[in-house]
Amino acid sequence: MASLFHPRNNFALPFSILLLLLPIFVPATTSAAKARHFKWEVEYMFWSPDCVEGVVMGINGQFPGPTIRAKAGDTIVVELHNKLHTEGVVIHWHGIRQLGTPWADGTASISQCAINPGDHFVYRFKVDKPGTYFYHGHLGMQRSAGLYGSLIVDVADGQKEPFSYDGEFNLLLSDWWHQGVHEQEVGLSSSPMRWIGEPQSLLMNGRGQYNCSLAAQFGNLSSCKFTGREQCAPKILRVEPNKTYRLRIASSTSLASLNLAIKNHKMTVVEADGNYVQPFSVSDMDIYSGDSYSVLFTTDQDPTMNYYVSARVRGRLPDTPQALTILNYKPNAASKRPSLPPPLAPAWNDYAHSKAFTSSIFARPGSPAPPRNFHRRIVLLNTQNRMNGLTKWAINNVSLTLPATPYLGSIKYKLWHAFEDRPEEDYDREAYDVTKPPVNPNTTAGSGVYNLRLGTTVDVILQNANTLTANVSEIHPWHLHGHDFWVLGYGEGKFREKEHEKGLNLENPPLRNTAVIFPYGWTALRFVADNPGVWAFHCHIEPHLHMGMGVVFAEGVHRVRDIPKSALACGMTARMFMSRDNSNTTVRG
Amino acid sequence: MASLFHPRNNFALPFSILLLLLPIFVPATTSAAKARHFKWEVEYMFWSPDCVEGVVMGINGQFPGPTIRAKAGDTIVVELHNKLHTEGVVIHWHGIRQLGTPWADGTASISQCAINPGDHFVYRFKVDKPGTYFYHGHLGMQRSAGLYGSLIVDVADGQKEPFSYDGEFNLLLSDWWHQGVHEQEVGLSSSPMRWIGEPQSLLMNGRGQYNCSLAAQFGNLSSCKFTGREQCAPKILRVEPNKTYRLRIASSTSLASLNLAIKNHKMTVVEADGNYVQPFSVSDMDIYSGDSYSVLFTTDQDPTMNYYVSARVRGRLPDTPQALTILNYKPNAASKRPSLPPPLAPAWNDYAHSKAFTSSIFARPGSPAPPRNFHRRIVLLNTQNRMNGLTKWAINNVSLTLPATPYLGSIKYKLWHAFEDRPEEDYDREAYDVTKPPVNPNTTAGSGVYNLRLGTTVDVILQNANTLTANVSEIHPWHLHGHDFWVLGYGEGKFREKEHEKGLNLENPPLRNTAVIFPYGWTALRFVADNPGVWAFHCHIEPHLHMGMGVVFAEGVHRVRDIPKSALACGMTARMFMSRDNSNTTVRG
Fold first, then answer.
1. Same fold, B35-154 and B376-573
2. Contact with chain A for residue B328, Cβ under 8 A
3. What pLDDT, in 10s, does the model give residues A353-397?
4. Which CATH architecture has domain A167-363?
5. Is B269 on the interface with A (CB under 8 A)?
6. Looking at chain B from residue 364 to 383, which residues have their Cβ under 8 Å from any Cβ of chain A?
7. B410 shares contact with chain A (CB less than 8 Å)
8. Whether A425 contacts A398, CB under 8 Å
9. Which CATH number does B35-154 carry?
10. Can you list the positions of beta strands (E) in B368-470?
11. Which of A106, A211, A290, B408 could form a disulfide with A92 if both were Cys (CB 3.0 to 4.6 A apart)?
12. CB A55 to CB B565 under 8 A?
């Protein structure tokens, strides 16, 4: 089977967008970067994200958390207060590379100790690159509990985007369960495992409709009635005719891969994961958990009508109604029902459609190109396995179990007992049949780390395989912390150097922080290990990570200076620092 | 109104018990105290405590946690591993005074930092006194989540109890909700407050029956069918005729005060909270959360029958079916239904009955007597209040909010900013009307501490009052850590020295660690502040403590040596120790 990385664009651009994409030359100006301060309190609260009340993890009484809006070059300072009663908390700034501030990456057990109940931690980091980002919890399944929000970085003062628009909207997509996250976690860790099932609702900006539909006239759900003040009232996109809008989209879903469309409106993709891409036009687009995009669309349709904006589940037999909101042409009332049904999504398992979208994404000319050669290639086999009656996901037969001491501290201070041996560089590519359930389904748990030599170019081949169930292989969106990577290509079946090496795209591969592997396929990534720190690389499906689907990269940790000690006040690093004290207090291991 | 402390015993003892209570003189022998080691893992698991499945916090896969059985003088060593994903954990050893080991008291924010997920802590403490104890979580509402178990200390080798018996049973009583504890917590912290309501079930040794009754023939619930292997199958008490048994009873309820009875069998109370009491006979007994007792009973009834053992809710209009198990005379089948109905409980609000029981408890002759005089008397007014829309319980108008840094560390290391100013010593006894809702319902939150001078005798007067609702005053069982106290007396209305001082019982007051205040009443306690450490004193009703109903006593903390630093690896103590380190790592506050 052919791989899908051919660098061509199958999609025609509408003329109105083409005009907007003309290069814009901006004179360099001095821009004064700012520090933007936020004081946040995290706590649980009752909320009705989909009109059914449950408990969400909110920030300052809001769900989703407050949107951070900054300009490239700014420093974000978030003083995060943990107001939970028994749980730690951290926040990961998804897509921000944390250049020089690896302790601010917000990954419990990796970049820092979880913030204790009643305590606080100050995240201070620079947002160096304009783009559409988001943030979310990164301890246990706190993202699934609703701990997320948007982070939008505009170009610096005096700079311009390489496209223009008249207005913009932001849609943060997520999925929602009525079962509490703690119970979901217990189920995933039980023997036999109890799967969380499909979400009850899809949310747009934290708003969904469980028992009714905005498009009731086209389906068999009852009609939603909103005053607009309900927590689950949809966020209406109010537009004027004949304008161009930027729609920022990010997916913080726990599980669902989504397909988004605006009825009768083409979208031009211009940004992916905070990187400009070669613009291309689509009628619908796939968005995997961890992805972010900007698209432009022009309100060139009949302005007397309103139109549905829809998000549907992809890649899993959908049991969840589509999320809907309204593209509301002024001066129509927002409540005016669209005359046309919501956009039709491609069949959930139409992977050819998904692959066509994914393989249409290329770097915008002028983007950094990848090094031509790699120093090291790590092949990561993704398998579903069993361990002592539990169901696990494993990478090269190791299911990631995070240690009590954050790697950033244990590696910096050479506490080698804080984690386990280094994992395997590859799997048995000759013997392993990726099209069948594993012959030996047993895996082991481990907390080993891939040590990357600072400054080297690393290739990662993500190799998908069959799950424990015959004829099933799932989609996994892999997200890398601390870096963008170039997506060199996607392919079917087993990756083989001889066959596939030459086809990798070294010309204009897109820079991303998240890339999907398709069922039974492989994905080839390249990045430069140039950011001293310790970085998670994992499937962004929350229960999959919880079940061990991730690895950890460490690079140049000896070069990391000035780690705030409050980031290391737990586990073996705490014991080490405290044992250096010679007051009359003892340390026990 | 007269107070109820008159030192006389209204209850006649059955002859069979009297014989057993003859003093027993035991020659002193050398007994080899042992260290008993346990390795425990705390994790959530699915369980059906009352035949309805929910999530419980278990230890080593068991609910309730394993019973610790030791001998007086032994050292208990529990290596506690936190296998929760996001929550800290601690375990308090209820009734163990922790003489010389205040860091092992297992109170988060008071005696230690919560143990982080993935980490562990070693509790090492001596059980110096035989008795019936239990252990439970002391962070958030983890006790309500099921984190509890029994701790039974036998007399040392060569020693004998001052009574004898042919066999023994242990009943650990608790209450159970179908709503998860996290959601309960969110409700209690919401504005307006959402009360947890009455428990769905009462449990005996973690076993209850929600939708059926062992006494179905006497009520309108359906009949329970058990093979005996179900998680909710009752623990049958199998007895032989004409023997005497010791029944150990402890209550770890979150909310419910209970009344326990064995149909047609009198019980002789011989121990309360790990202290021998003057034996007295009862047909039923009240057990408040935090209490423990031993009673003796003789199987002197018709041996061809089985009998019900029942526990019912006291002091709140009961909405919860009684807990039942069977006193099963051998060789009857356990499944043989008792011919007599379960014991009738007194009316839930028959406080006279409750007071008669409570005021029948006196120290066994030879028990330590209280000092005749006190150095300091602290009067604690118990009120229900409001704060920023929240409902709180407050003591002298301060609702306890625990700090991020354990007091044991912050006081030891003089980190005075770690908590707030000292609270009030008394309330405005002239002006405050305890029979009415508070005139000013507003309270403040605080983390202040009562500093007790080491070695002094401290009196505490617990003063009950009306709640926010007219004509309502509730029962509160107050539990003191680190000490036993003498219960000098109970009274009605407002405590007034002139009127009540002389009536306090200094002759044979019982030593307890838990004492109740009755609605609109007061309770007078005395203890010697002779145990260096920081000690919680609080209402043992879990949601009440969660809503601030407690105070903190600190005594002789300068004398505490050798605090394990792992007990202090959080908050300001962690920052202090880590800042003393001069490696290239910075500390941020």
1. yes
2. no
3. 999 999 999 999 999 999 999 999 999 999 999 999 999 999 999
4. Sandwich (2.60)
5. no
6. none
7. no
8. no
9. 2.60.40.420
10. 376-387, 390-395, 398-400, 444-446, 450-452, 457-463
11. A106
12. no
